[in-house]
Design brief:
The chain has three helices and six strands. By secondary structure, it is α+β, with helices and mostly antiparallel strands.
Length: 120
């Protein structure tokens, strides 16, 4: 599906902002245990960046998938996109640099805070 120029510009600015937030460590990315993805939580959204193939594998297509926690709506940006692909790859590099020493986590593991919220 072709995007309007205004939508592409907004998505490009979003990618630039995510790169900046990642580089300043205001946006924290984690590696999911047993997965080839990085993920972050931002503004009540789940951001999934994948796959986490080494940066040396430049031919591997990358994507950013964004979905709100409270809705089935989503946005996906692919590195093969002629206008947004370069911006997405900047984010891939920033995330790899920021999260390479992070231990793997389980985003769906049992969390006492979530259980408390559900049982109140």
């Amino acid at each position: 599906m072709a995007l309007e120029q205004g939508t592409k510009e907004r998505l490009s600015k979003l990618l630039d902002r995510l790169v900046s937030l990642t580089e300043t460590k205001e946006l924290h990315w984690e590696r999911e245990a047993g997965s080839a993805h990085r993920y972050a939580r931002w503004k009540n959204n789940l951001l999934i960046l994948g796959p986490a193939a080494p940066l040396a594998h430049s031919t591997v297509a990358r994507y950013l998938f964004i979905t709100p926690f409270d809705s089935p709506a989503c946005v996906e940006i692919n590195s093969d996109d002629p206008e947004l692909g370069k911006s997405l790859m900047k984010l891939v590099v920033a995330v790899e640099n920021a999260s390479q020493s992070e231990p793997p986590t389980d985003p769906f593991g049992i969390n006492e805070e979530v259980i408390d919220r559900l049982t109140r």
